[in-house]
Amino acid sequence: MHILPYLIAAYVFLMGCYGLATSRNLIHAVGCLAVCQSATYVLLLAVGYRDGATAPVFSDLEPGSRPVVDPLVQALTLTDIVVGATVTALLLALVQQIAKRHGTVDPDELRELRG
Q1: Angle in degrees, CA 98, 94, 109, rounded to 5
Q2: Structure confidence by residue, pLDDT tens digits, 62-108
Q3: How many Å apart are CA 66 and CA 33, to the nearest integer?
Q4: What is the pLDDT of residue 113?
Q5: Distance, C-alpha 42 to centroid of its chain
Q6: Apex 82 CA angle, 100 and 33, nearest 5
Q7: DSSP letter, residue 54
Q8: Could you tell me the CA-to-CA distances from 13 to 4, 17, 20, 39 in Å, in that order?
Q9: What is the pTM (predicted TM-score) of this model?
Q10: Which residue, of 34, 94, 103, 107, has the greatest Cβ tally within 10 A?
């Protein structure tokens, strides 16, 4: 098993976390959160990858004659992409409402939101 996809997923996740921690803008923070989630796509696809495997379509070959990639992991990745796009859209809508009501997207200037 190759370790390179796992290293890439960890690197992308850490870069997103670094951007999230140093963000001075809520829109930038939402983008960094999307980058963190994109690391899960790489990780899921790395888990389902097999050397020399074909697509899981059995129309032209007998089942069990060749190794195939795991279709469940591919379905989970597509689901993760849809959920990530939905969460990003919701967070951007919230940031837009914050900017409309408070006139800023800087988290430090949002004093009214502190308890």
Answers
A1: 30
A2: 766 778 788 888 899 999 999 999 999 999 999 999 999 888 888 88
A3: 39
A4: 61
A5: 8
A6: 55
A7: B
A8: 14, 6, 10, 5
A9: 0.81
A10: 34
